[in-house]
Structures are given as C-alpha cells and as structure tokens.
Amino acid sequence: MAVVFTQLFNGISLGSILLLIALGLAITFGLMNVINMAHGEFIMAGAYTTYVVQQAFSHYVPAALFDYYYIAAIPLSFLIGALLGFILEKTLIRFLYHRPLDSLLATWGVSLILQQAARSIFGAPNVAVTAPSWLDGGLTIAGAVFPYKRLFIIALAAVCMIALYLYLDKTAAGRKMRAVTLNRSMASSLGVSTKKVDAAAFAIGSGLAGIAGCALTILGPIGSTIGMYYIVDAFMIVILGGIGSLVGTVFGALSIGMLGTVAEFWTGASMAKVIVFAAIIAFLQFKPAGLLSARTRSLE
Amino acid sequence: MTGIKKFWGRQTIIAAVSAAALALSGCAASSALNEGEEKPAADTGGDTVKVGVLHSLSGTMAISEVSLRDAELMAIEEINADGGVLGKQIEPIVEDGASDWPTFAEKAKKLLQKDEAAAVFGGWTSASRKAMLPVFEQNNGLLWYPVQYEGMESSPNIFYTGATTNQQIVPSVTWLLENKGKSFFLIGSDYVFPRTANKEIKAQLEAEGGTLAGEEYTPLGHTDYSTLISKIKEKKPEVIYNTLNGDSNVAFFKQLKDAGITADDITVLSVSIAEEEIRGIGTDILTGHYAAWNYFQTTDTPENEKFVASYKEAYGDDRVTGDPIEAAYNAVYLWAAAVEKAGSFEVDAVKAAAGGIEFKAPGGTVTIDGDNQHTYKTARIGEIQADGQFKEVWNSGEPVKPDPYLETYPWAEGLN
Question: Can you give the pTM of this predicted structure?
C-alpha cells in the first residue's frame, strides 16, 4: 500500500517540477509565440544564482543565518532570470516576432553562448548547493516517506501558479498582457504600449524559469548544461496543455508527471520516456490544439 | 495568405543558401584533408614533434574532460623541461571534441592527416572512442585512451591506460560480496558501458553466489529518481551497484538521501564518481558510500605526492586529481618511454617497443601489456570521506594483468 501512496506522491511531485519548468515557457511560448530555445539557460541562471547566494551567505553572513540563504535565493533567481530575459527581448527577440524559424536558431545560439559563459565563469565541473537543513528529511506516513524538499517544490509551484493567475487576471498590467497576446493590433489601437508589454511578459516568463532553476538545485545537478535536460519536457507540456492556456499547462504537467511515474514503475525509465512521448503524439492526433486551448476571435 | 507564402519563400531561400554554403565549406575542408593522405607518417622533420590532445572542451562532457587535457599538457610540459623525447620538444595540438562523437572522428582525422600527429591523447566516453577507432585504424595512427571502460575491445591502434573490467568492476563485485552483502541492485545510464558492465556483473554474481534484486537503466541526463528509489525500497537490496554517468549521479544521490536511505542502510558502489565529481555532487550526501578505481588523490606513493603538488600548482589549489586524470598523465609518459625505446616516432616501431614499458605512476607502477595494449594496474576501493577524498579500504596488492575479454574467468564464457 505504501508503494501506491509513494508512487502517487512521486507523480504529483514530478508534475510540480515539470509545472515549474513549463510555467515560464507557457508565457513566452504559449502566450507570446516565441520559440525560445534559451529558456533552459534561464533555468541554469536561476540555479547558479542560488549557488552564488549560498557562497555569499557562507562567507559574509553569520553561520546561524546560513539556512535562510535559500529564502533569499528564490526572489534573486527570479530577478536574474527576468533581467536576462529582458535583455534578450530588447536586443534580439523583438526583431524576430514574426520570424519563428529565425528566432528558433537565434535563441539556440544564445543558449550555447550562455552555456559557454557559465562554463567560463563557474568552471566546467558541476557546483554543489547544500540544501538548507530545514528541508532535510521527510514526513513519514504509514511507512511512506514524503521528502520535505518535494513537498516544498509542490508548494512553490502552487504559489507561482496562483501568483501568475492573480497577476494576469487581477492587475491592469496583467490584463494588458493578455489583451496584447489575444489581439495585438486591437490592443495597440486602444492605447496599450505593446513594446513595453512584450518586454515585461518576456521578463516574467524568464524570471519564472529562474525560480524553477532555484528549486531544481535541491534535487538535481547544477552545471552549465542542465537547461538541456528540461527544455524538451517544457515545450512538450506547453504543447500538450494547449498553447495560450495556463490551466492547460497545469493539467499537462500533472498528467505527464503521473503517466511518467506510473510507466516508469511498470517498465523502466527509458521505456517510460517512449510511452509518454507516444501517448502525447497519439493524443495530439485527436486534439491537435492540446488539452485546453485559448479561443480567440482573431483570424489565424 | 500570400503574405505567409512570401514569408516562407524567403525563409526557404535563406535556408537553401546557407545549406549550400555549409556544404561548400565542408567540401573544402575534406579536400584539404585528403591531400595529406599520401604521407600519413608522423612529421618529425623539425626540432619538435606534434601530438594531438583531443577532449571535449565544450558540451556535456567538458565537465570531466577539461581536467584530462590539463593533466596531459602538464605531462608534456614536464617531459619538455626534461629535454623532450629523442631530443625533440613535444608540441601539443589541442582540439575540442565538443561532446559530439562525429566531431571526435573529424578532429582525429585532422590531427592525423593534416598535423601528422605522432600520437593522440584523447576521449572519455566509449561512444567517442568507438567513433575514433576506425579513423586511427585506417590512418595507422596511435590513440591513447585514458578512461576506465567496459572491456571487450582491443584495437591495434589504441593503447588503453584506464582500467578494463577485470581491474575495476570484477574485483569490486567480489569485495562487495565478501564484505557488504549478496543481494545486488544494478542501476546505470542507458548506453553501452553500463549495459555491457551489468551483463558481466550478472554472470559474476551467478558464479560467486550473489543474487540480483533488480536492474534499471535511465536515459543519460535523467534527473528524477523518485520512482527508481521506490523500486529499490521495495526490493530491499544490500548493495546498489552504480554505473550511472555524469549529472544523473547528482540527482540520484540527492534523492536517495531525501528518501531516507543512507550508506548504513544500503551500500552504493560507483564506478564513475571520482574526486572531481564528488565536489559537484556535495560531500555531505556521499559520505560513507564507495567507489572502485585504480588511483585516488590520497594514494600514498612518493610519485603521487609530487603529482598532486604540481597539478595544484599549475591549475590552482582548489583543483583535485582523480583516476582518469592520473591515467591521462601516465599515457603521455608511457608513450614517451615507448618512443625512446623504439628510437623512432613511427607508429609501428612504437607499438612494437611498447610491450613491457614500465612507469612509476602516481597510483603505483603501471606496465604496458604488449598483447592487448592495456596496462597492468592496481585495483583499489575507497570509501568517501566528509572532506570529499577517499579512504582506501582495499587494494589488489600487486598490479592486475589486464584481461579485456575476461578470458581467464570461466563464468564470462559466452559473454562476448
């Protein structure tokens, strides 16, 4: 019985990790239609930010406060990711909004540049982040262990999701962003500065990738190539969830997480990847627009 | 609609033009290479002799391979300071394999044909070695490959200075059976090395009285181990034999500890975690687990003291050495000694002279086995300490004769 609970939890946990990875992309790719291959490198930037914050805390802050470095690292990862995204939008993406193939190649180039930059700054080997001690261990219920780190990531993903929802639905800036993504020329003619909205949207999407990077440091490796491990999954989730639909992204992430863990339990990790991919391809044959798709009145 | 059509049209033209440009530059490069084909012998006319250093300096494998380049360049510098080889200074030509196996083959070809390198030191993954192998055989070049690998290979144009299975995996399985438990869970990355190694381990377990609790593979770069750990918990093995490669190790060990499994519960023995990797994973989660190698930074020999000191002096106090780094360093010295003995840089002469060449390496004396071009090495098992270094718990006493095809083990019959 414990195994069933553990596996159920593992599925939700994997889903929450995938959601964090894909949330930023749901904005830049889902809402703005930019194929940003450098999204994974913003995840990497968030991870390295966490590492730098940790180093700074261990050198300049009393040891008793060391455990709080992680709290400081989360907003800083967001800021660094957002800053990188903002710079990328201003210098490159904005020239490529209607040229998907060019933006694919150009952002892929950017991702290689960022990887090499990370290697020059931090060295080729991985760096280690010590998770704060309050995340060590786990909750034991009926023989099943629920690690605190995974519970924390589930909570973090939920918080990010809710914050993003509130921003897009309840604030003026968020509504403008949705207006621009739904109908750019109409929004523009009603006085919305689409340039500002584009830059802000891209920065937020990239910042969310930074948070994902920060969260991943407590579970996985921190090196210059970690972005590559997550980028394909992120695109897959956004496409499965339905381009332009944030709720769809949540369902996409959770269903891939669930299916992945169940398939891996019965077969193996390599086979599970095959099964998940095959299931997605089959699903998209019947619903090409994904689980939930945003309906607009604009002519495509 | 016309707008869209025009847009795609322009894209297609650009794509076609750039493809054509690429193809043209490719032709130019390969024709330049073909000119060299007439005299593949080493260029030893001047005061220097060229050798190739071919590792991934970018991409996923750069994490590990950059240190090998550093060790090889250090050995070359030391030999040069000592007067060189046959009176000539060694001139290293460094190329980047970029973690891409066709690139390794391409660069190897360039080093042999254009630079006429007398020897090439390079490679890490078995995939990169397998990609380079035909190039070295066709051009009669000399590759020195410095990493432990899965065995079952013996190319006349490759010298293997890392361990083959009977110098690392086979003794470590025996040691685990005698000291840690009979029930094994095998985990590995899904590619040639772990699958071949596990085939051998399973045969050995059967012959030596062990049992197999499970066998699982994950794709390279896999980062979620929660399900695999659930399976491990269900099967309750006494030993996990770990052939994961690269970043997956970080995720696996972090998540294993989170699931409440420590070294006291289940022993994990790894074959691709050296000092360098320990730093990237974090020592706190590895303490108490084991690794099998032929050399540790803590190996107690006078040669090693000097080696570690000069490595740190050259590349910084925070750098660490490790088994593949030592094997890469040895490779340069072994080649130089073989050249001196042959009195020539010619590949065939060097190969003929190489058998029996001895070098007092940091990890103990290594000797080239003339029959299979591997080296005699001392097998060692170390326990990971809180400072990120190993404490040796067992060694084979004397160097083990390399047996890449496991011909001397009755249980290995029918494996290859």
Answer: 0.84
What ipTM does the predicted assembly reach?
0.85
Architecture of domain B42-163+299-378: 3-Layer(aba) Sandwich (3.40)
Domain ranges of chain B: 42-163+299-378, 166-298+379-415
pLDDT given for residue B12 in this prediction: 46
Nearest beta carbon to residue A119 from set B62, B190, B218: B62
Binary contact (A219, B281; C-beta < 8 A): no
- Parse chain A into domains and list their residue ranges: 2-231
B190, B218, B227: best to mutate for the A interface, most A CBs within 10 A: B227
* Minimal C-alpha gap between A10 and chain B (Å): 6
Q: Is the pLDDT of residue A266 over 60?
A: yes
Q: What angle do CA B345, B351, B354 make, to 5 degrees?
A: 100
Same-fold call for B42-163+299-378 versus B166-298+379-415: yes
CB A28 within 8 A of CB A13: no
Q: What percent of chain A has pLDDT over 90?
A: 65
Low-confidence stretches of chain B (pLDDT < 70) are: 1-45, 416
pLDDT given at position B416: 64
- Tens digit of pLDDT for each residue in B331-371? 999 999 999 999 999 999 999 999 999 999 999 999 999 99
Domain B166-298+379-415 matching CATH 3.40.50.2300: the answer reads: yes
